[in-house]
Amino acid sequence: MEHRIDRIKKQLHAQSYKLTPQREATVRVLLEREEDHLSAEDVYLLVKEKAPEIGLATVYRTLELLSELKIVDKINFGDGVSRYDLRKEGATHFHHHLVCTECGSVEEIVEDLLEDVEKLIQDDWGFKVKDHRLTFHGICRQCQIQEAVTT
Amino acid sequence: MEHRIDRIKKQLHAQSYKLTPQREATVRVLLEREEDHLSAEDVYLLVKEKAPEIGLATVYRTLELLSELKIVDKINFGDGVSRYDLRKEGATHFHHHLVCTECGSVEEIVEDLLEDVEKLIQDDWGFKVKDHRLTFHGICRQCQIQEAVTT
DNA sequence: CTCGGTGCAAAGCCTTTGCATATGC
DNA sequence: GCATATGCAAAGGCTTTGCACCGAG
């Protein structure tokens, strides 16, 4: 974990930004809750536990900054709230998501899966792909089991 | 076009909703601008041209309704505005988008492309896919040409 | 007459911004 | 000391809601 903080610190310094205590606290929360897809408000509340004096605006500004530096990805599942997701170390692509329409759970898929499709897009549409967002909506394994039991 | 209006009328009636003049005007705008990705405000302004008395709230309510009935898809390209896109007739899947980060243009891809990937998701993750959202971010053909010229 | 639909304005959210203060180099 | 970063509160932008009125069956 310290290693990753260090890396981020360097990334910030490279653009002459500072890793202030508030920013570090925010990054730590993101690291601890890497599997989740926290909203700005979620992050704020969690950071507040360790650094009660932090303001919501700072969290927004920090998340915006991290987003610009491609350290986190800003995603939107259509519920009107932005969520922030730490990029996997060394990942060139954004990972995909499985959103369950029954229980709202979000699963991550790290595998690329889109290599062939991207090649097609480049070749057939002449569109130079830089990044992508792929989300599947459906019913997760758990809810399928539930359904089978209840029915 | 009248044919499609009729179909939508039936879909509404089937759920005991009415195709009021306001709703019809809204649907007509969506049909006329099928290639675009209009925001609620865009739709509102266009509808207002033919039916000046309409209110923005009604447009929102209509779009919400059409969205629930799966007649339109609500999408979000991350700019904080919802956009509304008519489903292609008989389409079971949402189509994909190529968003150019240079000029902001949005191209549509009707081809499925994800059959194999969806099969994998079902088989390997046990997730029953109902729908998907796929957006590529990158540089469109036009902007690539521009770049080549300017450089 | 009844109930869904509409228009308007007000309220609600999430997010951004202005500004004075505090902090790090 | 100076520029950057922060906190707070206010402002902003998009969307939803409350409420009285309207209109079709």
TrEMBL record, chains A, B:
Keywords: DNA-binding, Iron, Metal-binding, Repressor, Transcription, Transcription regulation, Zinc
Co-factor requirement: Mn(2+); Fe(2+); Zn(2+)
GO biological process terms held by the UniProt record: negative regulation of DNA-templated transcription; regulation of secondary metabolite biosynthetic process
The record's free-text note on cofactor binding: Binds 1 Mn(2+) or Fe(2+) ion per subunit.
Single annotated GO MF: zinc ion binding
A Pfam family recorded for this sequence: FUR
The keyword Repressor appears for this protein: yes
SUPFAM superfamilies in the record: Winged helix' DNA-binding domain
Binding-site positions, Zn(2+): C100, C103, C140, C143
Residues that, per the record, bind Fe cation: E115, H132
InterPro entries given in the database record: FUR (IPR002481), Fur_C (IPR043135), WH-like_DNA-bd_sf (IPR036388), WH_DNA-bd_sf (IPR036390)
Key word Hydrolase present: no
Family indicated by similarity: Belongs to the Fur family.
Protein name: Transcriptional repressor
Species of provenance: Aquibacillus salsiterrae
Lineage, highest ranks first: Bacteria, Bacillati, Bacillota, Bacilli, Bacillales
